[in-house]
Inverse folding.
């Protein structure tokens, strides 16, 4: 195997915004643990899209 054949890919897709970022520069979703990029985290995003949708869908029922 040559150096050209070895390709490390240290990136993950952010489950909040969909961007691919370095895996070491991110945080887990507070509910399910999936990857949230550092940019989203700096914007205050702490949940992935799916968990945020679940929380938003459950909130009106809880107060009704």
């Amino acid at each position: 195997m040559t150096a050209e054949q070895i390709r490390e890919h240290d990136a993950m897709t952010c489950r909040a915004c969909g961007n691919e970022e370095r895996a070491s520069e991110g945080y887990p979703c507070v509910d399910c643990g999936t990857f949230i990029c550092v940019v989203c985290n700096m914007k205050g995003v702490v949940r992935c899209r799916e968990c945020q949708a679940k929380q938003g869908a459950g909130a009106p029922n809880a107060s009704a």
Summary: The chain has one domain: 11-57. Residues 49-63 form the longest helix (15 residues). The chain has a mean pLDDT of 85. The CA atoms of residues 13 and 19 lie 6 Å apart.
